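Researcher: Let's try something more involved. This one mixes different molecule types, so please make sure each is placed in the same coordinate frame as the others.
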Amino acid sequence: MNYNHPELLDRLAARFALGTLGGPARRRFVRLLRELPAARTALVGWEERLAGLASSVPHVTPPDRVWEAIDARTAPRAAAAASKSGWLARLFKPAMGFAFGAAMTASVVMTNPALFVSLDRLAQEEQGLPQSYVGLLTDAGNQPTLLVSSTRQGTRVSVKFLRPVAVPAGRVIQVWALPKDGAPFPLGVAAPADPPKSTTFEISGSSEKLLSTVPRLAVSFEPAPVTGATPPTGEFVLSGFCVKLW
Amino acid sequence: MFDSAALQADIARLALGERAALRRVYEATSAHLFGIALRILNRRDLAEDVLQEAFVNVWHHAGSYQASQAQPMTWLISIVRNKALDHLRSNQRHVADSIDADEDPEAHQIADERPNPMQLMMQAAETMEIRTCMESLDASPRQCLALAYYHGMSQSEIAEHITAPIGSVKAWVRRGLERLKKCLAH
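Model: All components are placed in one shared frame. Result:
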């Protein structure tokens, strides 16, 4: 099918937004949303048009237990953030741009987080990709800089340099894991390389063991490789989401 | 009406981990979003689950909201509708797959006292100032659009509901969508 045809794209986006695009066609369109900015634009247009129809739906106040459940489920991150001392907040400041610009993972994945799993499965089925943890680290300007990956049961992490990384003299590229709850812990040190080359380093356990509750990775420049529970001394110069690819 | 600018600012704040902002967004939008979920799912327990899931996701993914792309309320409605539709479709499969299930799937069902979706659509059309334009459309395409949007019905469900061939329903849905776009363009 020729998806470059704007009218076809618009019709598919309309049916996707309405909810009547079913089965394989829906899955194909989800994939299209990742690949084709025009598909995303068409979808947003239709979501906007259809949202007007919601204006007449009578409001119904949900019972208090709904907020209580949301409150409980979102509390740990807040508690963890509150317990983190100022240094973490300071470290994150330069990386904040990435939080807003993380749209590179395609806005649809974010507006439909439930689709994420099926997309990953789809990618794996279609391309035979191994079960892996993958992190795309961007710099303060949101430029993809490092692609960090390791197989699910492996202990070797591969770091592909997408852009040059200017490491200050006497410093190393320290890769950090940022768990959902708790302080960052050091994963290892990546030897610098010229793009598009990759380097590797060993980690202390399998990726599954170390990264299963880690939604983000980051990089700081450190005077020496960090071990144990030592916090970063420098700011995070790169950071990004870490996702399971299966 | 929702204060779009305030919502946008709060979504940016909750992306930075400000919990008070999440509470404000919830207070401003939950009754509307719950109404939408309830209309699609017709079960309070499922609608509560969907609303909860939606807000937990909003908390974790607020950073991905792009103000330049969609109105904040549109973004929130889309999250809730997609979750409700996912629930609806997977729940239907589940019910169909497990006839012997111990739990009665109808147990939480509330009587279908939802207002007529056609009325809802024309009321919305009035607000959107496209009522006359939409009224010039035949009743069948309007009904199909309304059943799909407000009740989350698939095309085959609509065909069954209004006793019409699936081919006609597909054509009507398409015509309904085309008309909506045309009406809004003027």
